[in-house]
Design brief:
Order of helices and strands: HHHHHH
Number of helices: 6
Structural class: mainly alpha
Number of strands: 0
Shape: elongated
Radius of gyration: 20 Å
Oligomer: single chain
Distance between the termini: 60 Å
Mean pLDDT: 93
Length: 145
């Protein structure tokens, strides 16, 4: 193996792809390839979490700051919903993530923290867990009252 995984991951990845395509399986870096494949799934989950946090922040702001509701928030909510649903449609196994209690706890905690930073509303003002169902959160025209 000419390129070390640790020294240049892009060159390493190109080299590994070439080895795989050439059928030189004995020359591939199996352990690091396995890690990279696992990381693809983790990357999808991180993107889903990031988009969900943005969506929840805007839903929290919509609920807690009704006097500031506007087109910008509404567009961000719609955009994040569409992006989340697109990811789920392209990667159906992400549905399992939406049912993972620990994942939701982390996402909700991140959303409350970000909302506190953006609004100045105390973290403790927000519910311990999301008061909204995933169906409501992702529903096209739903907004918290």
């Amino acid at each position: 193996m000419a390129t070390a995984y640790e020294s240049d991951i892009i060159a390493w990845a190109n080299e590994q792809a070439s080895l795989l395509r050439s059928g030189l399986l004995s020359a591939i870096d199996i352990e690091h390839i396995a890690e990279e494949i696992e990381d693809v799934g983790k990357s999808e989950q991180r993107e889903l979490a990031s988009r969900m946090v943005i969506l929840l922040v805007h839903l929290l702001k919509w609920h807690y700051q009704p006097e500031r509701q506007g087109m910008s928030w509404s567009l961000t909510i719609k955009e994040q919903r569409k992006a989340i649903l697109r990811r789920i449609n392209k990667t159906p196994s992400l549905n399992a993530t939406l049912n993972d209690v620990e994942w939701w706890e982390d996402v909700w905690l991140d959303a409350k923290t970000a909302t506190e930073k953006e609004t100045g509303i105390a973290f403790e003002q927000f519910p311990e867990t999301s008061p909204w169902s995933i169906e409501s959160i992702l529903a096209e025209n739903w907004l918290p009252s």
